[in-house]
Amino acid sequence: MNWGVVRAYMRKEILELLRSKMIIIVYILPTFIIILFGYGIRLEVTHARTLIIDHDQSKLSRDLTERFMHSRYFDARLFRGTEQEALHRIKQAKTEILLIIPQGFERRLLHGLRGEIAAFVDGAFPIRGETMSNYVKGEIFHAAQSVAPDLAPRITLDNRNLFNQAMRDEDAIVPGLFGLILLVAPAILSALLIVKEKEEGTIFNFYASPVRKSEFLLAKLTPAFLLHSLNILILFLWATWLFQVPFRGSFTLYWLASELYILISLGIGLLVSIVTRTQIVAIVLTVIITIIPGFLYSGMLMPISSMSGESVIEAHIYPVMYYNHIVYDAFLIGQGLDAPKIRLYLLILTLYAAAILALGSALMKKELR
Amino acid sequence: MSPAALRVEKVTVRYGNTVAIEEASLEADRGEIIGLIGADGAGKSSLLHAIAGVGRFQGEILFEGHAYHSPKEAEPLKPHIGLMPQGIGLVLYRNLTVGEHLDFFADIRNLKRNEAFLSYRERLLEMAGLAPFTDRPAGKLSGGMMQKLSLICTLLHRPKLLILDEPTTGVDPLSRLELWEILDNIRREEGTVALISTAYMQEAARMDRIHLFDSGRIIARGTAEALLAGVRNYSYEPVPCPSERCIQTGHYTYALDPIDAPKKEPTLEALFFVHALQEGRRIPPIEVSPRESDEAIPSLVMEARGLTKRFGSFVADDHIDMRLQSGEILGLLGANGAGKTTFIKMLLGLYPIDGGELTLLGRPIRSAEDRRHLKSRIGYVSQHFALYKDMTVRENLLYFAQMHRLPLTRALPRIQRLAEELGFAPYMEALPSELPLGINQRFSLAAAILHEPVVLFLDEPTSGVDAIARSQFWQLLQRLKEVWGIAILITTHYMSEAEYCDRVVLLKQGRKIADDTPQHLMARYPEAKSFEEAFLQLYKEKVI
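Structure tokens for the assembled complex are given below, as produced in the milestone run.
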């Protein structure tokens, strides 16, 4: 290893990154993704447009209605029209929830009978519909409990936990984005740094000179590594400052895991640069093989533990799951290295990085193809 | 006699199923310039890549006693090898300055910054005329300057084996001369073995030994004089061929059997023709039948006055005046970046005109509407042959016929006739990518003349095409001009092709520096032995 050669090559890379303005993309892209997805993905439902038809007009029914009107999850109002008219409004997508409290609702309960409230929920978007119907059940249960505690047991609900989500959406989504961003961005940069020389022909300077493969790779990957290391801090600041996500764990652990993860991403970029010749193909290929798993197996949309079959295997093949587990822990839980699972995942990331970089440098050849 | 410094033995390079170069052997001594001449795809680059240790090959290469059979085995020699691959400014980083390039190339070669190095660096900069431009980014240099910078970057570590792949292609004549002077100096001082490929036959005179390449093989080798001596007996003044084993080109007739015609001093191009004849290839003369349409052709086809095109602060074409008459082949000559393509694109309406007046076929052009009526009367062949790669030759031609609203009953026989006359009938069901460059070129021309235009614009159609195909192409244009009576405007960076034109316009950095018949131009420079030299004189005189 000749450090003078590595330094000269690195100096050239940095100059080119600065003068070609590519440096802007290095720092815009991660921020762009975290803001776009951080605000863009919403799993909880607020301000669901709700109509209530109260045929009972009792104290209980009025209290119940009051509760819905004061909840931030619903924009509720009493409806004076017929049920048909109200249902028609759901079809027109002007209303999402319709509640009908039947005549004699309070009286039936007081007589020890079962009281039934009809709830119609717009199921056009299944996940949203499911969430809304859970909210409705929860709201009714809560209302009943506070308005008439002795009557509450007669209203049975089996899934009340779903409503009482203590977790904010930001807390659930934003840390999950780290595994996506730090998989995509460094991979694109490292693939581009190499493929650009292949496409433009300057790669001949490497092929035809005594520069060694290890020197070339070190000179290409080090700037990408260092530049993206700063993104670890930038993302952390966006999460804690802009999205107000708590940070309960060890920053050192978060930083260490992120650096390892960046190395893995650089390795993916290196592999892409071996099989591609043009920058545009390199970008498309990198985006496809990083964004999809980075999103699917982030644990944002679906916990890995609830996956089954092939998807579990796939989730374990990609590095995203291991990294995200550590990040979620660092932000929300804070167990850190005390947890054996975190220690294991950190080890897996280390081996992953070493393996992918070794594979990349073994497959890269110092000759024309 | 000491053994040769470089010995290449039976080197074969394959890409998949295609053989790029087959069993090529050559030798070179210290201080020698070895020339590789041939068309694109003849195998020059593949052989040079093999010798430079950047591409895989079969066979053996020996340099200064070290044998290698693969890029890996060539690795210990890399400190002594310098490679400048094909393509203008290919190895340069457009954002780095001239000075930064020299630093970078010195650093990756691990050169010590001692007194000797610094003075050598200064000398190279002086020789290349780049000393005043050390702070200029490579992207802002002219093509000629880029090539000179690439060359001195390649020379910086004083290689013992210098490999240059078409360093002069597309470069202006003056820069070409300067490049050769740098080379001549260095090889004499340093005793460098230099392997240089070129597309220009005229540069052969500067080489100690020449190797002629044709479809993956070396077909002839020796000094220029010896090679010429070998074909002198077969070269005659252009007369019609009396027998088989004979071929007539624009300015020569080559015949293997003696014919009754005055002899003419051949150029190296003769070797390709004679070789083809000796191999038994028959190259029939090209005939073109008259056009079907009897549309009258105006005598003044195109007139440009003060035509100007700017890209930001850069003036690509600066007040160009030009006239094109029917029945005339007008050659638009100039180096890469001189403004030839930009000019043609303005004529076609592909670039908006920034200044000046243009009249096409008697109609002043001010708006896109003015051009709409002219489309059916103009034919255009672009630099990169705008053909559809996934359609066969026949499908492509049918598509172009339909684009010009030619009824099928007329299009089908016309396509068949053109295919036979232009000599690509056997390739009708092939994809363009499977065709040799010369066939592609003729089939592109067929697509451009299918609708029988009255004016034809051709943008560098002969670039990279082999000597025989090139000569046939010019013959074809000649016939089109004579039989159809149309006007042809053609651009080229081969100055020697001026001889095929009725009139030439020479561009230099966006300005017109000559507009005359080739004969008059030659007469102005009686000491010039070729068009090359005449243009060089012109280039030197007209300083911009």
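Chain B has 16 helices and 23 strands. The two ends of chain B are 51 Å apart (CA to CA). Further analysis is deferred to the final report.
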